Amino acid sequence: MPWTSALAGLLCRPVRALIRAWVEVRLTEPDPASLGLSPTAATVYVLPHPALSDRLLLETLCARRGLPAPTLPLSEHHPTLPRCVALPGRRRKAQAPFLSYLEWLHDHPEQDLELLPVSVFWGRAPGKRFGLWSLLTADDWALTGRLRRALAVLVHGRSVEVHFGAPLSLRGLLERRPDALTNRKVARLLRVHFRRQRTRVLGPDLSHRRTLIDGVVASPTVRQAIAETAKSERLKTPRVKARARRYGREIASNMTYPVLRLLDGLLERLWTRLYDGVDVQGIESVKALAGDHTLVYVPCHRSHIDYLLLSYVLFHEGLMPPHIAAGRNLNMPLVGPLLRRGGAFFLRRSFKGNRLYRAVFQEYLERLLSRGHSLEYFIEGGRSRSGRLLDPRPGMLAMTLRSHARGLKARGHSGRLAFIPVAIGYERIIESDSYRAELAGKPKRRETPLGLFSVLGRLRQPFGRVSVTIGTPLPLSPFLDAETPEWRQASDERWQQRAVPRLGEELARRINAAVPLNAVNLIALVLLATPHRAIERDLLERQLELLVNLAQRTSVNPDDPGSLSAAQGLTGSPAAWIPHVESLGFIERRAQTLGELVLASPEQTSLLSWYRNNVLHHFALAGLVAFAFRNNARFTEEELHAVLAPGWPVLVRELYITPPKDLAAAIGATLYQLTREGLLERGTPTDAGQNRTPRWQRPAARLAAREQLHLLGRLVQPSLERGYLLLTSLLRLPSASLTREQLAEQSGLLAERLALLSGLDAPEFFDRRLFAGLVASLEADGWVWQDEAGRLCYGAALTATADHIHTLFDPALRHRLQQLATPAITPSPSPTADTTPTTPPADGA
């Protein structure tokens, strides 16, 4: 109507002035310079819906970023063709506005038009809510009027996001079909883009919490669990139903946009005060999946900060924060309600014996996933006190797989779900003191609000930088098709018994592969490899440079050549890292006449071991090759492979390493790397029939290089010594003498005794869980197996292999281990000695 156009013209000037003066674009994604606009094609901006505020903001943004102005006409001969159009709303019967542009292309066959989708988000409300605040803040396409949009501009003018899509060539979409059909096709493509963009930024609509809980309780699986619980406990059904609803309130999150905005402001101030900066790498792979995949983030669990840090990073990168699975111990006064409104849902440590709780939790999780909400949980279960990645726990993984498979049966197809491994690296964690106390044997402290708020008193301490690195995503359906193809047709859930452990192991490897290097963990690697935790500064700098060079030439994912190296985010030089790590309180520098020394006190040593364990896996193969030359002067590649191959799978499982497809080729590449760095020499070939096989040897005249090689080999020495100690303990007795638990316990006691006699203050060296993992590795590789009584059996192959690899170890250490193992092992009583199996089962290795 004419009067509406006149009113719009009157409002245009003051609104434009308000936007220029008040509005601030917090995030422009991607950078307009990277859009790759064609220099010969005219650009037409497309908005998802007609909105004066969006068009005026776009004008201001284009002027600031050097993009073509949306106010200019497309052509002098067609001044009526604007450079900015909007798709009509769903309730409008108007056609898409591209017919006139298609006619223009027919008239100008030498020209092209690029459609550039632009999404403007005034606020990031995640979905449907009720109340005045939600009315003002929700960014919904179904706008109720200009007044609401004006209020949204005022409320969110300092936190606006603009997201550009990929330019779309309109000439490339021209077909022989009528222009009307092409017009509808273009509109349909753009609507799909805008819908995916909205899902990526805002997430799916959230049901009201009470409605969601009611739906969970009314579901068939929960109703069946209610009936069975009522029958088994002889209770009335309404009473059990009330319990199920209480469980739902205990579990369900209550994500609200005002709390997200509050947490965003608080966390930005916290990170500024606590850390020198937050480095983010690999986020592009998440953005590529977020529009059409349900995302499950699986970060490593190093600190309580992990919960907040990942949500903060995703929010600032224009992605919707996930719903986070948190332990019920964090559902405490003050803290729990805040976390719940920030997206946390709470679960108990164990569901054992409570069928009703399990059913409610499973149904809640399934509803989140089926609606496309992103999730976050820690597959380790708890925080790592040793710095190593803990063994994956099957609980949440099994529930996720179960929900994914049920979606296949309910909808006829399984939705797109992808796991996103995330590695979080700290230069200094807040919990350092408590971790050190717990490793020393003190019980874990119970979380309390006062305990968490006590962290505020440490804000003045230096904590360095923190990094968030996204690993290689893992789409779930292709993984299951490869590992357990029967999952799509299986009538029961037995396939999960194989799929869950394999999935956990693969995710753990991808998390570890993405762990970044920093100054603290690099110095920890070098300093803790010295006998007395002291080193000359010049040698320390050379060794740091060596480690960085080795890391830069190694991709974090051998199967993905485009993946980043662990050293990708490193800045500065070894000379600058040393004073930085000293300022964080991890090392001391002592001036000497012959040169500066760098050393660590016993307290600092125990702290540094945590940071060393974060990244030890990156140098496992290089350390293993270097260790082989510790007590052997030279090897051919074939000899070295024969000696290292038996122990490599044990390291792979212990450290969750992504193994190369060809170990022999990887060993050869490592030999060439160490030769390039001057740590090895290629010796004179030896005659072997018609072949002349080259040998690698330690440099005879370069003592400094031999010292660096020795330090590199000591990185994996504790792990190898643990394995050798366990083998010594096992082979000192006849086959079928010990159970799995007895061997792990006895080996742990021997390791503790060896550590005390050697003056080694490292509780993790004799961690019983590590020895249990070693036993599991031997079983998985077929070296040992259990008889009917549960005792471990071994054959001649293990004995021969142990005799072959014993040359890797120092003779004094071998003698000491044999002395320790002889009196300590007590075999299990064998009812019939003549029935002991001497060969592995048919399906063994």
From TrEMBL:
UniProt feature coiled coil, ranges: none
GO cellular component terms given for this protein: plasma membrane
Localization of this protein: Cell membrane
Top-level EC class as recorded in UniProt: transferase
Keywords noted in UniProt: Acyltransferase, Cell membrane, Lipid biosynthesis, Lipid metabolism, Membrane, Phospholipid biosynthesis, Phospholipid metabolism, Transferase
Domain Phospholipid/glycerol acyltransferase: 295-427
The protein's name: Glycerol-3-phosphate acyltransferase
Organism of origin: Onishia taeanensis
